[in-house]
Amino acid sequence: MQNGVVDVPSVDELMEKIGAFERKIPGIAGAFLQESEWSFGTWADFAGDFDMRHWMLDTLRHSKRERSAPGQQTLDFYAHELFQDDPDAIRAMLDMGRRNLAVLTATQDPNAINSLRDVLDSMAQSDDPVASRAIQTYLEQRHHHAGCEFLPHPWFGQ
Fold it and tell me: Would the pLDDT of 157 be above 50?
């Protein structure tokens, strides 16, 4: 604070700091997003041209999985909501080794099946028996998170 004026970081600076904290202490980013009441509808109004997609994928790629805490949303939760119709992001999650997050994201919205068809077919035919079984079940049942019962600890497993 100088001359009674509070120095407020830009959104870019703030999110860079949150991402850095998340790398050191998994759980910071999810808690920040929850407490800031982050939502897709209001984010653009607040953040302007900040690239949340890039930030989210980069933060996921360089951080460990967050622990479960009662009443607390994780970074994975926000990621699966953000990327529910983004096949490239789902592929990136698989490349990061975040299989459960990729399956949860791919099965979030049955209305997105057509736009996700290539990645869903690839996951359904993969050598990973858990992912392939989950996606095959989802494609048969076509309802929100169908097949996720095959995942061990969906938010915090592999």
Answer: no
Of 12, 52, 14, nearest to 32 by C-alpha is 14
Question: What's the chain's length in residues?
Answer: 158
Compute the distance between CA of residue 143 and CA of residue 107 in angstroms, rounded to an integer: 8
Q: How far apart are CA 94 and CA 88, in angstroms?
A: 10
Closest CA to 108 of 53, 154, 58: 154
Q: Are the C-beta atoms of 29 and 59 separated by less than 8 Å? A: yes
| CA 14/CA 101 separation, integer angstroms | 25
Kindly compute the dihedral angle of the four CA atoms of residues 36, 18, 82, 79, in this order, to the nearest 10 degrees: -120
Residue 66, Cβ density class (10 Å: 0-12 exposed, 13-18 middle, ≥19 buried): buried
- The tens digit of pLDDT for each residue in 32-70 reads 988 887 766 666 666 778 888 999 999 999 998 777 677
Between CA 122 and CA 140 the distance in angstroms is: 15
